[in-house]
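Below is how a single chain appears once it has passed through the pipeline. First comes the sequence as given, then the structure the pipeline wrote out for it. We keep one example in the README because the format questions we get most often are answered faster by looking than by reading.
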Amino acid sequence: MHATLDRRSFLLGSAAVVGTAALGLQTRAEDKEKDPFGGYTVAIQSYTFRAFKLERMLKATQEVGIKNAEIYPGHIPANSSPDAVKGYMKLCGEYGVTPVSYGVVNFSKDNDKNKKLFELGAALGVKALSADPDPDSFDSLDKLVAEYKIAIAIHPHGPSGGGKMHRWRDAASILKTIKDRHELIGTCLDTGHLIRAAQLDIKLDPVEQIKIMGARNFGLHLKDHDNKRMTDVPFGDKTGVLDVLGVLKELKDVKFKGYIAIEYEASEKDPTADVKTCLAYFKDQVKKLG
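Resulting structure:
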């Protein structure tokens, strides 16, 4: 009788555990369904609100419903003191905005100078530093990403002055440079700058570029661009060309675990309305992705 009861208790207990686990999975599934961003870490590239000081930028980010940010140095200077950073972080907390990346910043062969940027990144709690590194910086960066466990996300800037492409022009050239470097050195591709390459008769499809980078996609600046008017446009605009759904599908295929930073450079004043338009379209594409 005692053995039977013990077995019965065990089976009942096991059923309860399984039931609880199933309930937990269901809850997580429900939470994902309620997430308008489909599980992607969506941030604002704070350069979007470059006309605002830090607090107003954070307020605008809160108002549009984004909870993460890639902070650009105009909002938190790279030479900020530890006490200043604590103050900035307190302000971010008050508005419910979490820094997930910092940049875009330059790195050189000067390891001490590079280390200060990593120290700032660690103080901000970011997972990546979006970067425009000098070609001779990688010996230093190899050591620093290993030490701080913060990724370097190389950011291509598209066409520059004089009708030339930026030195980090596309995924293939970046991958060729970093293939033998630390696995935490990758990219923060920028869909807008990739689209801008067509101004020089160079076709760089953002979806294909993401595919090429594979596991080394650590971040993404998501924006659309009208090359005729040479201006950013909201997602879904009839003059734009960005395939947002295709981008999301490819990110899913490469098992992307980084951040998607919404960036909009068309307005020097208050781009809030256009950012809301971008987010509404993004959420609609997430629903289509399922």
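Residues 1-27 have pLDDT under 50 and may be disordered.

See the next section for the split statistics.
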